[in-house]
Amino acid sequence: MEPEPQSLPEGYYLQNFESVLQDVRSRYPDLLLERERERLEAFLALPLPARRIYVRMLTRKGPWFRQDDLRYSEIPDLAGALDALAGAGFCATAPDDPATLEPLLRKAEIEALLDRCAVPRARGLSRAALGQRLREAALPLCGEALAAALPVACPLERDWARLLCFLFFGNAEQDLTEFVLADTGRIRFEDYPLDPGGRLFQSRADVDFLLDLGRLREAFQEAAALGDLAALERITGTLRDTLPHPGVRQQRRFHGLLNDLGREWERRGQPEWALGCYALSQRPPARERTVRLLAAGGRRAQAAALAAELAEGPWDAGEDVFAGAFLRRQARHDNLAAAWVLTHPAPEPLPGLQLRLPRHPSGLVERAALAAAEAQGWRGMFTENGLWRGLFGLALWEVLFAPVPGAFQHRFQSAPADIGGPGFYGLRREPLERRLEELAGPGAFRRAVLATAARKRGVANAFVDWRALDEGFLEAALAALPEAAGLSVVRAMAHSPRALGHGFPDLFLHRSGPPRCAVWEVKGPGDSLRPEQERWLRHLGQSGIEAQVVRVEYLPTP
């Protein structure tokens, strides 16, 4: 049952913002520039109404607001509050360009302004068309009068406020909304002890680098959506010339952006640009994509040499699987690949199943395969990663939220801050191994997962999607799942939870009498098995689960 939403006290939004300010002031005073510290102290010295209206504007879509849309009962003297903000440099009340005001005007106001400026217009024009007419003809004539007649306000120092939130949350994805979601009960977070002395960032260079990287990602997403090749070239050049220095944490974001940019260049038919991005990246699947591009471009010897490097020193298990499969395919064409194959026997083929099925109304091949499985007497769900990640999060809940130094910086975390770092397992080796040993007893794994699910249902955990793990399905899955298989997945993921938390089979199937389960990785026409999917299929198959690749061919449409 969903918890009842909680009411919020008057001025809650300012309390939330000021808690961010106070935390940053105590945790990162040395990382703030002199002007940023001055701005922080100047804001805290403002009158209460001024601080309240600033945060109100900061958390609304703007940047410009009509003053008559800024009426709040707890801010009775709006004009005085805005004057105090403007005097301290936190607010502007007059735009440099009157065209800024056009989106704020109501339809009747635009019509009256056009009439006042004697601008002819057709009858029945839409609000958008009227706005266009205003921009073209009326604003050059009466822009100053409009600015005087329409009181507006715009919060300044947005970058300063974003910096403070970034330092508090440790990322650019979370913002003040987290406070509201938690305080109203819409999201419940685990109750873990905070580490007031812990710091995600040790230098201002780290902070600036990640902020710049965030802006580059936003620019990349916009350029990719528009197909702006010139912008993509500029972003690529910026990344090429801004390699991370050794002190920068979370370099995975840098290499992740390089990989995304490389894939976009591939989609645009520009392999050389893609290769340039992958050459800088130190995160899978950069080397795999490089091998594929080299082979596609006829540079088979280079591709085989790089694949051999991957096979001998893979960055993850997916690279190992891919490299072996690639070298075996190339053995007839390349001496290096042929020599490698002689000393590396091919693994046993994965069990497979061929199905000819009608298209499912949803259009999803996985749904079509699930319907076919149900016709064979199976019950199941299209879970993909949800079940297995959920088992990991539930089985190791207490270890995930244990008070490791620096792991928990604020109360809105669904996982420890180092969950994706190389030191996750090492810092928790003893409690992890102790917990895994406890779960190995007869029936212990099933009892522990169900008990944790009952106790923690609805609490945020980065690995647990509660929508995919309703009580009935979780109980049925655990009844059919060999405990050793579930525990083996949890044990494997514990060494690198983020890197190993994907690639699981699409379908989890179970049946009773006696209980048994199966997993299907479903592939439609033209789809191929990815290395991480093959890795988990083999792992699950070796753990006692029926693991199959199911290839679907669609029946002709009548």
Rounded to an integer in angstroms, the radius of gyration calculated over CA atoms is 29 Å
Q: What is the helix fraction of residues, given as a range?
A: 40-55%
Number of domains: 3
Strand proportion: 5-15%
In the sheet with the most strands, the strands line up as 4-8-7-6-5
Give me the count of strands: 8
Q: What is the 3D form? A: globular
* Sheet having the most strands: 5 strands, mixed
Mean pLDDT: 90
Cα-to-Cα separation, first versus last residue: 45 Å
Annotation field: number of helices: 25
List the uncertain runs: 1-5
Structural class: alpha/beta
General description of the model:
The protein is α/β, with parallel strands linked by helices. The protein folds into three domains: 12-169, no CATH class; 202-343, Serine Threonine Protein Phosphatase 5, Tetratricopeptide repeat; 352-554, no CATH class. Helices cover 53% and strands 7% of the residues. It has helices spanning 12-27, 34-44, 48-58, 78-87, 107-116, 127-149, 158-169, 177-183, 204-226, 229-240, 251-267, 271-280, 286-296, 300-312, 317-330, 335-343, 365-375, 386-395, 397-400, 424-427, 429-439, 444-456, 471-480, 483-494, 531-542; strands at residues 65-66, 91-92, 152-155, 352-357, 379-382, 507-511, 516-523, 546-554. The strands form two sheets. The protein has a five-stranded mixed beta sheet, with helices on both faces. Strands 1-3-2 form a three-stranded antiparallel beta sheet. β6 (507-511) and β7 form a beta hairpin. The chain is globular.
